């Protein structure tokens, strides 16, 4: 019997307590629908001043697929991604932001390309759905 491929999803988190419940809900639905893979979701919390870490802990207690890596300070998004990738144990690693700007369904597209033999797969945002001020700050 062929073993399931293991996918790590790495999500850097900084002051995202307002979106964490919806993000985890969407990721859980996606993971449960894609039972032909095993998943881990690694949240890299790097210095949030809100309750992001506490909230993540509550979800991690309920779901062993959720892992939290808390950094000692804010190393920026890239630092969080790098730490998450070192911590990941999957056959492939998917990186996504916590702000719900990327459709969760894209993970399937990325996995498909990886299974087709691509070593690196990435997407490009065609149109941001955030507010004018959020786009300027991005």
Automatic annotation (TrEMBL):
<dbReference type="GO" id="GO:0005886">
    <property type="term" value="C:plasma membrane"/>
</dbReference>
<dbReference type="Pfam" id="PF00535">
    <property type="entry name" value="Glycos_transf_2"/>
</dbReference>
<feature type="domain" description="Glycosyltransferase 2-like">
    <location>
        <begin position="8"/>
        <end position="133"/>
    </location>
</feature>
<keyword id="KW-0328">Glycosyltransferase</keyword>
<dbReference type="GO" id="GO:0016757">
    <property type="term" value="F:glycosyltransferase activity"/>
</dbReference>
<dbReference type="InterPro" id="IPR050256">
    <property type="entry name" value="Glycosyltransferase_2"/>
</dbReference>
<dbReference type="GO" id="GO:0009103">
    <property type="term" value="P:lipopolysaccharide biosynthetic process"/>
</dbReference>
<keyword id="KW-0808">Transferase</keyword>
<dbReference type="InterPro" id="IPR001173">
    <property type="entry name" value="Glyco_trans_2-like"/>
</dbReference>
<protein>
    <submittedName>
        <fullName>Glycosyltransferase</fullName>
    </submittedName>
</protein>
<keyword id="KW-0448">Lipopolysaccharide biosynthesis</keyword>
<keyword id="KW-1133">Transmembrane helix</keyword>
<keyword id="KW-0472">Membrane</keyword>
<keyword id="KW-0812">Transmembrane</keyword>
<keyword id="KW-1003">Cell membrane</keyword>
<dbReference type="InterPro" id="IPR029044">
    <property type="entry name" value="Nucleotide-diphossugar_trans"/>
</dbReference>
